[in-house]
Amino acid sequence: MEISSILQGGYQHPLSRTWQGRQLNKSMLMYPIFITDDDDARVEVPTLPGQCRWGVNRLEGFLGPLVKKGLASVILFGVPMKCQKDPHGGPADDPNGPVIQAIKKIRQLFPDLYIATDVCLCEYTSHGHCGYLREDQTIDTELSIARIAEVALAYAKAGAHCVAPSDMMDGRIQAIKRRLIDEGYGNRCTLMSYSAKFASALYGPFRDAAGSSPSFGNRKCYQLPPNAKGLARRAIKRDVNEGADIIMVKPALPYLDVISDAAELARDLPLACYQVSGEYAMVCAGATQGVYDLRTMAFETCESMVRAGATIILTYFTPQFLDWLDEKP
Ligand SMILES: NCc1[nH]cc(CCC(=O)O)c1CC(=O)O
Ligand SMILES: [Zn+2]
Ligand SMILES: [Zn+2]
Known about the structure:
By secondary structure, this protein is an alpha/beta fold. The chain has one domain (26-327): Alpha-Beta Barrel (TIM Barrel), CATH 3.20.20.70. The protein contains eleven helices and ten strands. The protein has helices at residues 14-18, 59-68, 98-109, 141-158, 172-182, 204-210, 229-241, 256-265, 277-288, 294-308, 318-327, and strands spanning 29-36, 42-44, 52-54, 73-79, 114-119, 162-165, 190-197, 246-250, 271-275, 312-315. It has an eight-stranded parallel barrel with strand order 1-4-5-6-7-8-9-10, surrounded by seven helices. Helix 4 (141-158) packs across helix 5. The longest helix is centred in the middle third of the chain and has 18 residues, at 141-158. Bound molecules: ligand PBG and zinc ion (2 copies). Residues 118, 120, 166 line the site of one zinc ion. One zinc ion (ZN) binds at residues 118, 120, 166. Catalyzes an early step in the biosynthesis of tetrapyrroles. Binds two molecules of 5-aminolevulinate per subunit, each at a distinct site, and catalyzes their condensation to form porphobilinogen. It holds the Pfam family ALAD. InterPro entries: ALAD (IPR001731), ALAD_AS (IPR030656), Aldolase_TIM (IPR013785). GO terms for molecular function: porphobilinogen synthase activity; zinc ion binding.
């Protein structure tokens, strides 16, 4: 045997195995949660096992035990059920709406918990699209990004540590950054861009949870085509230049090459990826079918993302990881 043939001597011990790459840890995990406008609600989402829509009065009981276990950050999604949706997504920045109420409540209950807010219009528009539409149903980019910047500013003013636009309208990063700076929030709020967000089949359970399916058509004119490596690279570079503080790739597991590209193109920024609702549901379904052990598969998927270059992972497995990471040898 050649001397250079032997690798196993380097990873024969559990500790030396941890030295072979970066480790998943609790501060990387950002937990996506759904906030609805029925203050006492706790409604399970059938397609997203173990996840609920929460009313603001339930947040203390829901998040308290997780914060004790080391939950570091959440990302909030508003799920308005009672309000009147309109073509401009008017309810998105309603001061009495679920997101702004939740930001204030969480700041007060858990001052150390980092609060990111998803910024989009689809949960609030009557047509369910992520921007403004012209009469011919194409996107009106200028009006969309002005409105999205306004909503982002409202969340920053309410106390969000981070605003994360998921709409995929061109130019919104610049528009939001400008607005935050002009209003004195430039250094008080992080801007995380869903930069490479693909038109994926994996968003189904989320749309059930958030009630945000488009009422007609699809999102292919603003979310990226799954084959688009070049567009993804351009979107990442553009958003870095427009002032993003964090870049995100979404979904995560089928797009590890894009995560790896982003690690190179945005090498000076933290890099997030979103293990989306359909990925979570797939991992759960396989475990239920006996294909693999849930915990082992959850670790393998997220460790792949870390290996590809992610430093932040948005995942519905966050509560379970808080337990699993304590158990790990
Ligand atoms: N603004 C759209 C948005 N915000 C979050 C998700 C998906 C997140 C998930 O699946 O977990 C989506 C995708 C979509 O509906 O097109
Ligand atoms: Zn949207
Ligand atoms: Zn969104």
